[in-house]
Structure to design on (266 residues):
């Protein structure tokens, strides 16, 4: 077979994969997700294990209980049950992340900005929303198409390499491994809005999201925003978008309270 024929065949296979792998996000946006959930989970588990080796974890029982209380209140209401692992990392940045495979990481620096359980729930729900909306799968799929033949699952399980760092960045923990690959603005906005749904369903007040992002804006001091905000529209745009959706999710919050979902995490 000639080189041209091989290229044509590869293009046809790629096009077929794109057609088959078109999915829809929780908010109705069309997505390209080439990888099965099991393989994405494998990547997420490997990335989380690597993170725990690289970054000290908190031994403060009170802090761990608090963060776990907030995180599990959210994950326990998800339609697809799985065992989530939550870890607090001794890291000064106001950040958190969630990975396919049921992994959540929260930096101690975030607790200085998220002043109460509802504000912390805003961030945790935002990160879980990234996972549920398959944002990591989107980015890994785009990278796969751009680097045909790259065996990403094997990269995740192998020794530290630039390719492994890139993969972990695509999954959502870029700065922890030295490469900043933040989610795009569309994905960030989607996680903001879907995150409100998740926190309201768990019994956290979605109105606290506005206060949280105002705290984040104040934390940035008007200079370069924290990593968590780096690819999002301005603070005002973000807050306006949240304010626009809060009335839609308040009935969910009220229903959660009536059903007895009233987290008391401290």
């Amino acid at each position: 077979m000639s080189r041209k024929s091989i290229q044509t065949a590869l293009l046809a296979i790629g096009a077929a994969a794109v057609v088959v792998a078109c999915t829809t996000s929780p908010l109705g946006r069309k997505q390209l997700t080439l990888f099965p959930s099991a393989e994405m989970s494998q990547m997420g588990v490997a990335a989380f294990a690597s993170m725990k080796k690289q970054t000290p974890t908190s031994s403060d029982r009170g802090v761990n209980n608090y963060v776990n209380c907030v995180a599990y209140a959210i994950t326990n209401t998800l339609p697809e049950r799985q065992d989530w692992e939550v870890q607090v990392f001794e890291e000064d940045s106001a950040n958190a992340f969630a990975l396919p495979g049921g992994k959540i990481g929260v930096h101690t620096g975030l607790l200085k900005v998220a002043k109460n359980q509802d504000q912390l729930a805003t961030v945790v729900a935002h990160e879980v929303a990234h996972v549920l909306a398959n944002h990591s799968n989107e980015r890994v799929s785009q990278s796969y198409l751009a680097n045909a033949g790259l065996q990403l699952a094997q990269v995740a399980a192998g020794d530290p390499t630039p390719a492994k760092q890139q993969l972990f960045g695509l999954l959502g923990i870029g700065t922890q491994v030295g490469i900043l690959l933040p989610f795009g603005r569309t994905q960030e906005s989607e996680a903001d809005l879907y995150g409100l749904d998740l926190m309201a369903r768990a019994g956290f007040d979605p109105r606290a999201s506005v206060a949280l992002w105002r705290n984040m804006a104040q934390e940035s001091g008007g200079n370069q925003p924290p990593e968590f905000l780096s690819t999002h529209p301005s603070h005002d745009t973000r807050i306006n978008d949240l304010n626009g959706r809060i009335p839609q999710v308040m009935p969910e919050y009220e229903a959660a309270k009536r059903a007895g979902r009233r987290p008391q995490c401290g």
User: Anything to note?
Assistant: The first strand starts at residue 22 and ends at 24. The CA atoms of residues 210 and 239 lie 6 Å apart. Confidence is low (pLDDT under 50) at residues 1-20, 153-157, 175-181.
